[in-house]
Amino acid sequence: MGSPKVEDRERVNQSTFMKDIAPAISPPAGIGEAKPANHAVIDWVQDVAKLTQPENIFWCDGSGRENDYLLGEAGRQDVLIKLNEKKVPRSYLHRSNPNDVARIEQFTFICTPTKKEAGPTNNWSDPAEMYTKLHEMLKGAMRGRTMFVIPYIMGPPDSPLTKVGFEITDSIYVVLSMRIMTRMGNVAVKRLGDDQTAEWNRGVHSLLDVDPTRRFICHFPQDNAIISVGSGYGGNVLLSKKCLALRIGSYLARKQGWMAEHMLILGVESPEGRKHYVVAAFPSACGKTNFAMLIPPKHFEGWKVTTVGDDIAWMQIRDGRLYAVNPENGYFGVVPGTSYKSNPNAMKSIAHDTLYTNVALTDDGDVWWEGKDGAPPAHATDWRGNDWTPDSKEKAAHPNSRFATPMFNNPALDVDVEKGEGVPISAIIFGGRRSDTMPLVFQAFDWNHGVYLGATMASETTAAATGAVGQVRRDPMAMLPFCGYNIGDYFQHWIDIGKRLTNSPLIFHVNWFRKGADGQFLWPGFGDNMRVLKWIIDRCAQTGGALKSPIGWLPSPHDLDLAELDVAHKSVIEILGIDHEEWQTELAAQEKFFDSLGGVVPEELMKQREHLAARFGL
Ligand code: GTP
Ligand code: SPV
Ligand code: MN
C-alpha cells in the first residue's frame, strides 16, 4: 500500500459532504441498553471494545423509540438531512464521502486457510495475517465515538434458512440503514437465545478515517466473521447484505446443501389465477429491482407481478423442488433512472420513510435525480453538497446514488414474502447488460446447459462498483464479486443441486440492453419485459413455442405476445436473432474465461462448451 494521496486526504478533511464520522452520543436512560443475555455475544463485544476503545457502547433493540432518537442525533451531527416532511414524509438524505460511493472490489478479501479455497476469482489473504493487519488498524479506532451493537436476522422469522448476525459499527448511518434492510433488534436476540454454542455471524465495522488507502472488506468464512474498515457506503458496510447474505452465505450454502444467490424473486399471476415464481440473476445495476417490481403493459390486463425480493435469494430443496426466500427486509436500490414511467412501484415505495444516499437536494427540501419525472429544478445542491443548475457539467445525483426503503412500502409486495419455507421456483433467469451478441431471450436445453449459461454470463460494468464503467466482463451467475469460495466448486455445487432436483426450474438467459446500429436500445424494457416473462411462463407450462438454435430454444416473433408494442418489426427480428460472427467471438471469450480459471471448471461444463461449439459447426 502506498501512502494516502494528498488529494484524498484533503477530501476527507474538507467536509463539503456530510459528516460520516460523528462524536459519541449520550442516550437517555432506557435507550441503547438492550444488552443480550448470551455471554458469547457479550464477550465478543467486550473484546472489540477493548481493541477499539469507544467512548460508550450502544446496544440496539430495533424499537421505534430508539430509531427516532437516532434519527434526531444523526440530524444534529450532520450525518443526515431531514427532507421536506410534506414532500417526502419521514425521509432523510445522507451524503457519503466523495471517495466512497460504491463497493470496492479490489479491497474485498476472502480469508481462507488456503488460497485454493478462495479460488481464482477472489482476492485472498491468510486469515492470521489479515486479522493482525486489521486489528492494528482497529486499535483505538473508536476513541471518542459510540460503538453500536446491532443484532439482526436474515430471512423470515420462521424460516429454517434464517441466520443471526451481530454487527458492531461506529456509524449511526449504518444503524439506521440496517433497521430498514434487516429484521433488527430484539427479534434477533430472541432467536439466538442464551445458547453459548449457537451459530451467529460476527461483523465488525469501523469508518476509521474514511481513507481509501485504509479500506478493506474482509471475510473469514471458517469463523463466520466479517471485518470492514475505512468505508461508510452500502455493500461495504451493511454487513448483512453482500458480506453475510452472499459471500459468507454462499460458503455456508455449499457446506449445508442450499444456495445463496444474487437474484431477485418475483411472482407472476395470470388473469385465471395461475401463479408462478421465478428468480433472476443480473449483475449489479442491471435491472433486478426494476424487474422485481414490473407493472405489465395495458395489453396484459389482469396479469399481476409481485415482489418477493429484489437482490438476494436463499434457496433450498424440498420434495425435489427449489424454494426461495428473500433474506432481506428492505431494498437498497439504484436511484437514477427511477421514475413513474419506468418503475411506479419503486416511486411509491420511496415516497416516504426512505433513507436516500448521494442524491441531489432541492431548495425546498425535496430530492432530485437524473431521470426523475418532470423538469429538473432550476437550482439544487448536488450529491457532493455543491450548487447545481441544469447547466452544470456534473451530475446532480451520483450514478450509484441509492435509496434504502422497507419492503413493506412496496405496493406490489408478494403475500408470501414472509413464508418461512419460501416460494416454489418455476424458472431461473440469467441476464447481463450486453450491447451486442445476446438475444432478448433464450432457453437452455437442460439444467447443465443452463448452468453453463450462468457460468459464462458476461455484462458491461456499472457504477455499482468502483472502476471503469461499460467494460464487458465475465460475471458468472452475477456472483463474481460475491462468491465466498472457489468458483470451480461453486459451479460444481450448481451441478450437484441439479442432480438432487426431480422438478427442476427451467433456465433462461435474457438481455434487455442490446443496441441497434444507431446505438439505441432495441427493446423498450421495464414493463414490456412482461412479454418475455410471459413466454418464460408459457415454456414452463409447456404451451410456448420455440425454435431450436445452436445456443438454445429461441422464440420467433409470433411466439411472443407483442400486441400494442411500439417497436419496429425489423428491430424485433434483430433483437431475437443470433449473429454467427458475434457468436464466434463470444465462444472464444467464453473459452478464454474458462482457461483463465486455471483448471477449476468442472468437466461437465467443459463438455457443455464443446457441445456448443459443435452446434455452431466448429
Ligand atoms: P443493484 O441494486 O446494484 O443490484 O441493481 P439492480 O440489478 O437491482 O438494477 P436496477 O433495477 O436498479 O436497474 C439499474 C439500472 O438499469 C437503472 O438505471 C435502470 O433504470 C436500468 N434498467 C433497469 N431495467 C431496465 C430495462 O428493462 N431496460 C433498460 N434499458 N434499462 C433498465
Ligand atoms: C450491488 O452492487 O449489487 C448492490 C448495491 O446491490 S451494494 O449493496 O452496495 O452492494
Ligand atoms: Mn445487487
Instruction: Characterize the main sheet.
Output: 9 strands, mixed
Q: Can you count the beta strands? A: 32
* Amino- and carboxy-terminal Cα gap: 46 Å
Q: Give start-end ranges of low-pLDDT stretches.
A: 1-16
Query: Strand pairing plus helix content: what structural class?
Result: alpha+beta
Description:
The chain is an alpha+beta fold and 618 residues long. 28% of the residues lie in helices and 21% in strands. It is built from 17 helices and 32 strands. The strands form 7 sheets. Strands 1, 4, 5, 6, 7, 8, 9, 10 and 11 form a 9-stranded mixed beta sheet that branches. The longest helix has 17 residues, at 240-256. The protein is globular. The two termini are 46 Å apart. Mean pLDDT is 96; it is low at 1-16. The structure holds guanosine-5'-triphosphate, sulfopyruvate (SPV) and manganese (II) ion. Residues 284, 311 line the site of manganese (II) ion.
